[in-house]
Amino acid sequence: MERQDTDPALKPALMQFDMALAEFARARKADPKASSLSLLERTRMLMTLPGGFDAIYRRVRSLESAGIFGTSDWARPALLQPALAKHSLREAGAVTTIVEAISELRMLAVTRGKYFHPGVSAEQARHFLTQVMALNLDLLSGQLAEADRERPKQLGTIVQELYRYLISHLGYESLLDSLVAEVWRLLDQGPVQVDSMREMIGQIAKCLYDPDIKTRRNADATRLVKALFAPTPASAEDPGLEVYEQRLETMDDVALSSEATYFARSMFDTGLASPYHAVMLRYLRASGQDDLIPNTLGLTMTGLDDLYCYTELVHALIDEAIYPETCQAVYGLTMMLERGSLFTPSVAQALWRQIKLKPSAETDQALREAFGDARPPRVFLLAGVINLLGQPLGVGQGNNPTCQSAIGLSMWASNEADYLLQVLTWAARDNEVLSRFEGQEVSSRDLEPGLVQGTPVDVDPVSLVLIPHLDRIYGEMWRRCENRDDDAHRWINPEFYGWWVSHGFCVVADAKTGEVQDYEGFIRRFYASYHPFYNGNIPVIHAQPAGIAVTDSAARFVGRHAINILRVALSHKNEMRVYFFNPNNDSGQNWGQGITCSTQGNDELRGEASLPVAEFASRLYAFHYDTLELGDLSAIPDEEVARVMDLGYTSWAGPHRGCTGATT
After folding, report:
1. In sequence order, what DSSP letters do the residues of 424-454 get, joined into one string?
2. What percent of the chain clears pLDDT 90, i.e. is strictly above it?
3. What is the pLDDT, as a whole number, of residue 142?
4. What distance in Å separates the CA atoms of residue 352 and residue 313, rounded to the nearest whole number?
């Protein structure tokens, strides 16, 4: 990278910065809580000078080694969320803004291969920066908004210069194409939480239609923008919700039917529902034209059957949960009906209870803080329930080390929705969740916080309410197992998730030392349990939790992570693949050695990731299996086992590569 140390004031400022950095490093060694304010002020001053960002970029590893991120969320870069980063950059105080700027320079160094970071891969860093840039596209115009200009200590200018610095090294010409591709890549994974994607699309719209920003037309970008702001002929110029409702009142039956069809097409094209879509549904209910609701939702035979069997309930869900502020629940409702969710009578009854539920004051407050006051908190919670039941594979752990709990929400929404709605009722109404572990009751009420110390960040409403309770219960189960002689997941998973988690358990790494043991036997047992060619062609009946060793694009071990094995099947390319659910908000990862998780193009259902079975097995370290349905271990070809072992040993499983610790 070309250095930019050209300003006469840079050299003395840099000397003062280096002295402050050295002093801070010494202080942090003596006291982990030593103040960083002096160093951050020197950093801020350096950022105001030409060449300052380049100087800090070259020192970002030293800054992190000295402890500039402490024990904050910035110390766990893989969990950082772009939407929160935008707030930190554009709206927070000086200290937060400067720390965020340092963090993004770190991400740039990781992206460009200048800094191997054990906590985040180059691919994760690149995706993060792409999304951050998408959320700040307005800075491309070169004109600072009033709110940015008025920020103290030149923070507005600093953020703009940081953005220019990032663009200069990541490529300006293809920026819009990259941002649009990033949004589509994320949408293809079927997330239930789409607020940040909506914001990115809003920024893309400004970029497309701002005369001060020179961009070429992009068909994929236009599809995204139209899906939110102009999904139908009557909303083509984004007239505003009030004007649009007035137009609906003047339409005849043919025009209304046409609008309904356009809404459904747009929603299924992108997986996004527009606020106009919610206005349409509420208008149909208010005007007594319920017969158009199936077309507006785009229902097929299964969805229609579900709707006609539970018409009163579906109408109540629309009345109580579908508003412009919760418009994504239109898509959730459609997918819930298409899954036939209401055909389980207990689920229908539980939804009636959810409609009438009065959350506790604590739950109300948490929901208000996260989703605002535009609608009562119970509306956001009910909409969240609809979205989760419609897309069980769309839930993510957000900016939280809670993959185990997120897997639980997904599994229950898919398998046992009535149980999910029961524990949600307890959490939302009673501030308590009850469970059992080995015959003894476990209550979340009086337990110490687990991995989530406060309110979960950047998650859907159901996760916001439930995750703290589930995290405490999981942590308590872990404490009760921590002195046992094997991996605690053996005992916890069947108790925590449900009876369908298989009793058999196999782990390849020693729980205490992380040393890999009997790798060949581990691989053979996995194939004999899951591969249709070697297990008697028995499919995966219920999704099974498993542990993987995540590696980066250079196949270096990053950490342990929990996923859910959904199915093992031949793709249309005649390739045996493992299809799985990854709760980390982004399933399309490059794990090195040519192993890239696929989220589309290999027969994945929306929300699934997949890998060829050998590549998946090479990153597997723990799984459950049915001891009564185990195939012949000797039938697995030696060359297949050898290939898997070679991929594992040359990445995470080799000597001194380290694979210890709990799954997060």
Report:
1. HHIIIIIS--EEEETTEEEESTTPPP-S--S
2. 67
3. 57
4. 7
Tokens at 432, concatenated: 């308590």
Q: Is the pLDDT of residue 450 over 80?
A: no
The Cα 359–Cα 377 span in angstroms is 8
Q: What are phi and psi of 372, to 5 degrees?
A: 90, -175
Say if residue 511's pLDDT is above 90: no
Cβ proximity of 330 and 267 under 8 Å: yes
**Identity at 412, one-letter amino acid code:** W
Alpha helices (H) along 322-390: 328-338, 345-356, 361-371, 377-390
Is 69:103 a contact under the CB 8 Å cutoff? yes
CA distances from 258 to 226, 280, 337, 368 (A): 16, 12, 22, 37
Indicate the pLDDT class of residue 213, thresholds 50, 70 and 90. Answer: low
Does pLDDT of 529 surpass 60?
yes
How far is the C-alpha of 76 from the C-alpha of 80, rounded, in Å? Answer: 7
Residue 505 half-sphere exposure toward CB, CA atoms < 13 A: 16
**Which amino acid type is present at position 228?**
L
Query: 252 near 287, Cβ under 8 Å?
Result: no
Closest by alpha carbon to 593, among 546, 655, 659, 653?
Answer: 653
How does pLDDT run across 113-124, given as a tens digit for each residue? 899 888 888 888
Question: Of 337, 426, 424, nearest to 385 (Cα)?
Answer: 424
DSSP-assigned letter for residue 516: B
Q: What are phi and psi of 655, to 5 degrees?
A: -55, 140
Residue 435: both structure tokens together: 């469970």
According to DSSP, the residues that pair with 544 across neighbouring strands are: 565
Give the model's pLDDT for residue 5.
Answer: 46
Per DSSP bridges, beta strands 504-507 and 609-612 are unpaired
Question: Average pLDDT of 131-141?
Answer: 73
- The yes-or-no verdict on residue 141 having pLDDT over 60 is no
Instruction: Please list the helix, strand and coil fractions of the chain in percent, rounded to the nearest 5, in that order.
Output: 55, 10, 35
d(CA 518, CA 482): 23
Q: Which of 244, 246, 189, 177 is nearest to 216 (CA)?
A: 177
- CA–CA separation, 562 and 514 (whole Å): 16
Q: Name the token pair of 258.
A: 């046409």
Distance set, CA 366 to CA 191, 461, 517 (Å)? 22, 9, 46
pTM of this prediction?
0.81
- From the list 80, 105, 116, 109, the residue with the least C-alpha distance to 554 is 116
Residue 133 makes CB contacts below 8 A (sequence gap 6+) with 163, 166, 167, 170, 175, 179
> Which residues, 6 or more positions from 356, have their beta carbon under 8 angstroms from its beta carbon?
none
- Mean pLDDT of the 440-449 span: 90
R_g of the chain computed on alpha carbons: 26
pLDDT digit string (tens) for 332-387? 999 999 999 999 889 999 999 999 999 999 999 999 999 999 999 999 999 999 99
8 A C-beta contact, residue 462 and residue 386: no
The C-alpha atoms of residue 475 and residue 462 are separated, in whole angstroms, by 20
Query: What digits encode the pLDDT tens for the residues 23-67?
Result: 999 999 999 889 999 999 999 999 999 999 999 999 999 999 999
551/234 Cα distance (integer angstroms): 49
Which residues contact residue 44 at a Cβ distance below 8 angstroms, ignoring those fewer than 6 apart? Answer: 94, 98, 153, 154, 158
Helix (H) or strand (E) holding 103: helix 94-111
Distance CA 469, CA 423 (A): 9
| pLDDT tens-place string over residues 577-623 | 999 999 886 677 788 899 999 998 999 999 999 999 999 999 999 99
User: Which range, of 171-180, 406-415, 511-520, averages the lowest pLDDT?
Assistant: 171-180
